[in-house]
Amino acid sequence: MSTTPVADSGMVLDANEIPIESWGGKFERKFKENPFVPVLAGLTTVSLIVAGAKLRRRDSVSLNHWLRVRVLMQGLTIVAVVGGSWWYGQMKHQKEAATAVEQERLLERAGFEARLRAAEETDKLEKLEQEVHSRASAAQGGAKPGWLGGWFGKGGSGSSGAADGSSSSA
């Protein structure tokens, strides 16, 4: 398995370009996620070492006291692990929900902007059509030249009847 260091950071990547995390980096990341677990695990270790020292001195009362402290610390460590996992899961779920809401808002905004651009383009075309129609109407002396202002030929209510090929002069 080959490893290649990344130029801009101290991360090392494996053959599949997956970063390999160092012990110190992993400890730092886990400590930031749930600081109670390493502290309580350290206190458990300290209480076990002190209990071992009391065992060597044959101080049974103090030994029992420190073994009870060790059990308490182990229990608190388990509670911290479970509670931290639950809390981290809740925070992750909240972040995902917030990201989903933000993504939905951005999509809604993009859709609105697309509809707004389409409406503005339609309005622009309608105004251009009205302008062309008013110029054509002004060029013909103000009379309406036919159905939909002459867009579809001459004929209809305002025409003189010359569009159908018949002539009134005989």
Give start-end ranges of low-pLDDT stretches.
Answer: none
Radius of gyration from CA coordinates: 41 Å
Number of strands: 3
Mean pLDDT: 81
Shape: rod-shaped
Q: What separation lies between the terminal Cα atoms?
A: 103 Å
Give the helix proportion (percent range): 55-70%
Order of helices and strands: EEEHHH
Q: What fraction of residues sit in β-strands? A: under 5%
Strand line-up in the sheet with most strands: 1-2-3
Short description:
The protein has 170 residues and is mainly α. It has helices spanning 23-33, 36-56, 60-139; strands at residues 4-5, 12-13, 19-20.
Can you characterise this structure?
With 170 residues, the protein is mainly alpha-helical. Helix content is 66%, strand content 4%. The chain is built from 3 helices and 3 strands. The chain has a 3-stranded antiparallel β-sheet with strand order 1-2-3, with no helix packed on it. Helix 2 runs antiparallel to helix 3.
Provide tags for this entry:
170 residues, mainly alpha, 3-stranded antiparallel beta sheet, 3 helices
What's the structural blueprint in terms of helices and strands?
Blueprint lengths: L3 E2 L6 E2 L5 E2 L2 H11 L2 H21 L3 H80 L31
Antiparallel strand pairs: 1-2, 2-3
Helix pairs in contact: 2-3
